[in-house]
Design a protein that fits this description.
Layout lengths: L22 H13 L5 H18 L4 H11 L9 H8 L2 E9 L2 E9 L6 E7 L6 H8 L3 E3 L5 E3 H8 L2 H9 L6 E6 L1 H12 L8 E4 L17 E6 L13 H9 L6 H11 L8 E5 L18 E3 L3 H14 L4 H4 L3 H15 L5
Helix pairs in contact: 1-13, 2-3, 5-6, 6-8, 9-10
């Protein structure tokens, strides 16, 4: 089990009522986006129950014993704790509810300020995991009509729909504190969709980490909540699916004098052209994240807000070349996001003696 929230002074009094970008809030959201990869209470109960049923069958247990276990599985009042709820409880969070439906996972937590002056609700979505459901979700990249206008990634919309009603009902029953929404990778895509459809009052903010493109421009027109799109160096996931820049590729493809190139370019144009990013870009540099690093040194800052396009492109290209392309996957790790954000937040929020 990894260690979480190891900078407790950053948790003491986060700016709960300030929706503007916050270094402390960004780190908190990244840690929660890392924590959501741990088994949820619902998953713990299911895994344990399946194991017990399998053991009963393999040992030749009676039909009554197996039936009892199955009946227990149908008991909706069953409550099982997990490491997630324990970890949250140790750091002044309260686990409110978990959601795990058909490969889409998330949880809702409440953070209470140490001095009792306020609360915030945080909805966190889990990112892509190495299973067939998540892979199928990611590869359904065709843009389809989105409820309320615009076009959206078909796989992401289908995944969000699995938990939308459950989450909406839970948020309705916990009205009051500002709602923050976060997620890493696929979880970032789902967080953005949830912000579009669930966060109507715009009382919080959305933080995504290494999130892919989700939809077209029109889809985002209804969002009032501030969105902060955090990207770590050469992370390759935020660069897919290809957006409007794909038009240049398609133009070149049409010029290739081979049968089928026109049909391929037309299919790509209809289904992919239109993807765009949304939100304020928060770019994480490639400086070291160990104890020897100094994120306040001029020219070596860890966090850059809306950086120059040419500087960022050169940094990413250089990092990809020096790593033989491996940085596209290596920089996607949520642990790296959380560590860099922690170090930068610590440099700007020194603990009081």
């Amino acid at each position: 089990m990894s260690k979480y929230f190891d900078a407790p002074h950053l948790l003491a009094t986060p700016p709960i009522t300030r929706a503007a970008y916050s270094d402390r809030t960004s780190w908190i959201m990244a840690e929660l986006s890392r924590l959501v990869y741990e088994p949820l209470p619902e998953e713990v109960s299911v895994v344990k129950l399946v194991s017990e049923i399998r053991a009963a069958v393999e040992s030749g247990g009676s039909e009554d014993a197996v039936e009892m276990l199955v009946r227990r599985a149908l008991d909706s009042g069953q409550e099982v704790s997990s490491d997630i709820s324990t970890i949250l409880g140790q750091h002044n969070f309260e686990f409110v509810e978990g959601f795990a439906q058909s490969g889409t996972e998330a949880f809702l937590a409440r953070l209470n300020q140490v001095d009792g002056s306020g609360q915030m609700l945080i909805l966190v979505f889990r990112g892509t995991q190495p299973n067939i459901r998540d892979v199928l979700t990611d590869i359904k990249t065709d843009l389809v009509a989105a409820p309320g206008g615009g076009r959206i990634h078909r796989g992401f919309l289908e995944a969000f729909d699995q938990v939308r009603d459950l989450i909406e009902a839970t948020l309705t029953s916990h009205k009051g504190p500002p709602v923050y929404i976060a997620g890493h990778s696929l979880g970032g895509a789902l967080a953005l969709i949830a912000t579009r459809y669930l966060e109507r009052e715009s009382t919080g903010a959305c933080y995504t980490f290494g999130g892919p493109r989700v939809a077209d421009d029109r889809f985002f027109e209804g969002i009032k909540t501030p969105v902060y799109r955090v990207v770590n160096a050469a992370d390759g996931v935020p660069r897919v699916p290809f957006g409007f820049g794909l038009k240049l590729v398609l133009g070149g493809l049409r010029l290739i004098p081979l049968n089928g190139t026109f049909q391929i370019s037309e299919w790509l144009r209809r289904n992919l052209v239109g993807y765009t990013h949304y939100g304020s870009l928060i770019f994480l540099s490639t400086v070291p994240t160990g104890p020897e690093s100094d994120s306040t040194t001029p020219g070596h800052r860890l966090v850059r807000k809306s950086p120059n396009f040419f500087w960022r492109s050169w940094l990413v290209l250089r990092r990809l070349l020096m790593s033989w392309g491996k940085a596209a996957a290596g920089d996607h790790a949520i642990r790296d996001y959380a560590e860099k954000l922690k170090q930068y937040a610590q440099s700007r929020n020194k603990p009081q003696e």
